[in-house]
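Q: My labmate handed me this sequence with no annotations at all. I'd like to see what the chain might look like in three dimensions before we decide whether it's worth expressing. Could you predict it?
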Amino acid sequence: MTQHATPTTLFASRLREAERTGVPIEPLRDAVPHADEALAYAVQRCNVDHWVAQGRRIVGRKIGLTAPAVQRQLGVDQPDFGTLFADMVLGDDEPIPLARTQQPKVETEVALMLERDLPDADTTLLETLRAVAFALPAIEVVGSRIRDWNIRFVDTVADNASAGLVVLGAVPCRLDRLDLKLCAMSTRRGDETVSTGIGAACLGHPLVAATWLARKMAALGQPLRAGDLVMTGALGPMVPARPGDRFEARIEGLGSVVARFAEA
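A: Here is what I predict for the chain of 264 residues:
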């Protein structure tokens, strides 16, 4: 550690190096046993600021750890959030280069596009509903810079909520035509169904998750704005992805989206 390095800048640098080299690192919580949420988000923000300074453009946020099944998989009990950059967003069935993924797993989500700002730390569900322009089916390709996905809350928060890539469907749907609480989700890898779920698995309702995010971001002085993309969280368990895999996700009322991984 250099004379001016702090745990925040040191951990941020380690995560960037892991992303650059593709070599995952040991859990951050092992280096600072008493690391807390504040430190983890400070590390995340340090890297977000770094990438913005390098010219990357923020286009939205992702909510993580909303589904009980995913929380059980990772041993956590609360949501988190991360930042989405323009170069992380792919279109339906667009080939996914393996070099852009790290220990990739996929999860199916409801994506929202906002048409109004959500500036208040006490944002209501109704205000969130009015702010949404449309919804899309989406597959998030989550990834971890932490070795073997050996993460707890501090690790994934610092690692930009384990963000990787986002694959969006191309047919927008207005919310007045949808029941996002009861919509069924099914994800297939080839001919095999590998994940199922329902909208209620996402904090009870994807709009509840989006409202949580709106309040959190406003309280941090970084409110959600019109034009932001919001990934609301998994509707079912995440599934490891392999070279050549093709995943097709269907969400009742929203349609389908395909994530196709390049061969090795």
